[in-house]
Amino acid sequence: MKTRLIIFFGLLIVPFFSAFSQMYGKVDKKVEKIKLVSFDEKPFFVYENLVSIIYLEKDLVIKCIKTRLEDTELCQLRRKNYNTILRDLTKNDSSFYTINRAEVLTEETKDIDKETGFFPLDYYSKLVRFNISKDYVAPYGYKVSMDTLNLVHLTKYFDWMISDLVLKGQAKIFNKKSAKFENEVKYEIVHFDGAHGGEQLQFNDKSLFFIVESYSDVMMEDGECDEEYQNSLK
Q1: Rounded Cα gap, residues 175 and 173, in angstroms
Q2: Measured distance CA(8)–CA(84) in Å, rounded
Q3: How far is Cα of residue 22 from the mean position of the Cα atoms in its chain?
């Protein structure tokens, strides 16, 4: 659910990134290295996308959710969703998984570079390489690598449940391209002219494996607090 929001907002924001970077040629970038700490991985929460598999301690994910729930300004829909996820994770000692679909919005594909799946002038297009015009494997768009046997499917999740822990180094991350676990990853923060920018996680070869956040000075409604919008994603 949150992933679809990131993709949707990312596709809207991308043209602004491109316009500003072309007009002014100014990009402020900061890169930090994150050392990953190994841990006893059971019970765990595992997330897979096109290029990576991320393992997180379930207890730490639960702790993150409880911390978010302490925010007295949470909208009711967020609070409801967070409590639903918390209830699912704590009802037994099982490990959980979720798989991210490699997809873009159909109505936006006419403006997308078919070789990368992203707008041709987008800053991130240099970092992501996925040809959406061929080799599609249903239902996720790619061949799933993780073994889901004996794992419980977590149907609802938010990206911060993953990024919050990765940014602290509290994760095991498998690079599907190199077929090995990483000892460290990179956290890149990019600011274009104006208030446009984004935060992302990269492997050491600078290839992107997770978008933490995209932001812009263009005013948008908060979809996570809009029940009608959330129902439209189902």
Answers
A1: 6
A2: 24
A3: 27
Dihedral angle of Cα 138, 223, 125, 31, to the nearest 10 degrees: -120
8 A C-beta contact, residue 188 and residue 172:
no
Query: What residues does each domain of the chain span?
Result: 2-219
H or E element that contains 54: strand 52-57
Paired sense of beta strands 52-57 and 44-48, if any: antiparallel
Q: How far apart are CA 192 and CA 223, in angstroms?
A: 24
| Prediction pTM value | 0.76
Kind plus residue range of the DSSP H or E element containing 172: strand 172-175
Residue 99's beta-bridge partner residues? Answer: 48
pLDDT in tens, 160-202: 999 999 999 999 999 999 999 999 999 999 877 666 788 999 9
How many of the other CB atoms lie within 10 Å of CB of 52? 22
Question: Do the strands 96-99 and 44-48 form a parallel or antiparallel pair, or are they unpaired?
Answer: parallel
